[in-house]
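@channel sequence for tomorrow's demo:
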Amino acid sequence: MKINKLIIYGCCGLLILGCKSSTKDETVEKKQAILTEDLSDLSVYNLPSNWTDQHANQMQLQDLRGNIVVVAMIYTSCQAACPRLVADMRHIEKTVNSKAKSKIKYLLVSIDPQVDTPERLKKFSIENEMDGEQWLFLRSNEEDTREFAATLAVNYKKISPVDFSHSNIISLFNEDGELIYQQEGLGVDYAPTIKAIEEAANKL
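structure tokens (generated this afternoon):
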């Protein structure tokens, strides 16, 4: 009789533990859903990529949520288009006037992560007077970099051991990581881009 009671108690205990385990699993699933349920399918923050900035800090794109983000893709050893693209980004940053200027981030993403180490990115930012808090330089692995480039319709291809051909596009993301504006070209009139940035920032 005692054995039967022990068996019954043991089964009950297993049932209780099973219920608790199931509840815990459901809670985890709910927490995971909450992280992305309020992001649209168009948000770049849905990308599960990992990045390293010029200070060797690890981050994800979603860490930028809540900011207006202006993006260009470059590589630091570029001697042709990139210096002009960098100058255009610097010009835009200096010209933008908004009450929410502190919520605007200027992001330069390397298409050459093997060469562009955090140390190299930091040196590049200092040399180009882009070392303020509003400037962010990122690198990732080749797969995540290409996935991010695809969301911007940026094409790039290695054409020599040290050179790439690439699109010259400046992109604008709203606070939820949705692409809202793009302008292509070098040394063009960036007044429309500046206006789009200011309008997005003033909505915050």
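heads up for whoever presents: Helices lie at 2-36, 81-95, 118-127, 142-152, 191-202.
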